[in-house]
Amino acid sequence: MKMQRGMTLLEVLVALVVFALAGLALLQTTAQQASGIGRMEEKVLASWLADNQQVQLHLEKTWPEKRWSEKTVTFAGEQWHLRWQGVDTQISQLRALDVEVRRNKQDAAALVSLRSYVVQQ
Q1: Which of 55, 88, 91, 109 sits in a 20 to 30 Å window from 117, CA-based?
Q2: 79: phi then psi, degrees, rounded to nearest 5
Q3: CA 81 → CA 15, 39, 53, distances in Å?
Q4: Rounded to whole angstroms, what are the CA distances from 100 to 31, 34, 36, 108?
Q5: Which of 98, 100, 97 is nearest to 108 (CA)?
Q6: d(CA 24, CA 42)
Q7: In 1-121, where does DSSP find H-type helix?
Q8: Which of helix, strand or coil describes residue 8?
């Protein structure tokens, strides 16, 4: 009586199905991570722009107006839309400064919103 060696065709097919499913799961996870990295990069760039705009406005030492001002800039090879406005606070010599950054002017939600405060001199 001979001992059987090796795998049957059914065992090979089951192993191939298991490896194929594992490969598909790995591909899906990699695609999600790549998409997340792109979104994270976009938010980091937008936060840098918002921070830069606030610093520029603080350095100019101008009292923020209570209406939206806006501009479009090119940064990192892309177009970005920035807008900012002053918001009254309970202290008359203190005004909040809100800066928002969007990829497009028409975007409903800002990628980044940043608030700081300006003291009237």
Answers
A1: 109
A2: -90, 140
A3: 53, 17, 11
A4: 29, 26, 21, 11
A5: 100
A6: 27
A7: 9-60
A8: coil
DSSP state at residue 25: H
- 85 burial type by CB count under 10 A (0-12 exposed, 13-18 middle, 19+ buried): middle
Pairing type for strands 69-75 and 112-119 reads unpaired
Distance CA 87, CA 85 (A): 7
Q: What is the residue type of 46?
A: A
pLDDT confidence bin for 35, thresholds 50/70/90: confident
Q: How many CA atoms lie within 13 A of 49 on its CB side?
A: 29
- In this predicted model, what pLDDT tens digit does every residue of 40-68 receive, in sequence order? 999 999 999 999 999 999 999 888 999 99
Q: Could you report the per-residue pLDDT of 74-87, keeping only the tens digit for each? A: 998 999 999 999 99
